[in-house]
Design a protein that fits this description.
194 residues; Dihydrofolate Reductase, subunit A; 5-stranded parallel beta sheet; oxidoreductase; RibDG_C; Bacterial bifunctional deaminase-reductase C-terminal domain-containing protein; DHFR-like_dom_sf
Length: 194
């Protein structure tokens, strides 16, 4: 996750791209390389114009299948669309990505993060990186399914409509690592205490 000093998850262009740096992108690549799958919400795919990661699979959490604005292209081999079981046909049709695999989760529209992690593990993808956006990442944090938080803090003061991680309650963590680069970016690794 990336944030400005004021807690904004997006910069002046409405995306995280205006907050990031070359070092931050390099660290993101390292984190993704250690993952089996990158999980992201559909709203973030639309806002950020997501592309497929180079080394990990991409799983998009969606209730509607609306992925307008993505840059995934037609070659979506390995792409997973995670959705409520009752919406799987709608998601398949509306996504416009017939090559994507739909991973339907039993239950209602409000898919539980633990159910997402369990389904991915059963699919042979136990190492999950949740890139957000803020709403999905906060749901994962509140559910207690995150082992480690990697947070980049850009040395910028941007308007923040809401925090970059709008959690509902305290999450007990300890610092596992911290770096500051020459440009003033801070890179935090926080481990969740159990």
């Amino acid at each position: 996750m990336i944030t400005s000093l004021t807690g904004a998850a997006a910069g002046s262009d409405g995306t995280s791209e205006s907050l990031t740096s070359r070092t931050d992108r390099a660290l993101l690549g390292i984190i993704r390389a250690a993952a089996d799958v990158v999980v992201v919400g559909a709203a973030t795919v639309r806002a950020e114009g997501y592309v497929l990661p180079r080394r990990a699979r991409l799983a998009i959490v969606t209730v509607s299948g609306d992925l307008d604005g993505h840059r995934l292209g037609d070659a979506v081999d390995g792409l997973l669309l995670i959705c409520p079981e009752t919406r799987s046909a709608e998601v398949r049709d509306r996504s416009g990505l017939p090559g994507a695999q739909v991973l339907a989760i039993p239950g209602g529209d409000d898919i539980e993060p633990a159910a997402i992690c369990d389904a991915l593990a059963a699919h042979g993808l136990p190492r999950v990186v949740c890139e957000g956006g803020p709403t999905l990442a906060a749901r994962f944090a509140d559910a207690g399914v995150i082992d480690e938080y990697c947070v980049s803090v850009t040395p910028a003061l941007d308007a923040a409509d809401r925090p970059f991680l709008p959690i509902a309650s305290h999450v007990d963590t300890e610092v596992a690592g911290m770096l500051v680069d020459e440009a003033g970016f801070s890179y935090l690794r926080l481990r969740a205490r159990r």
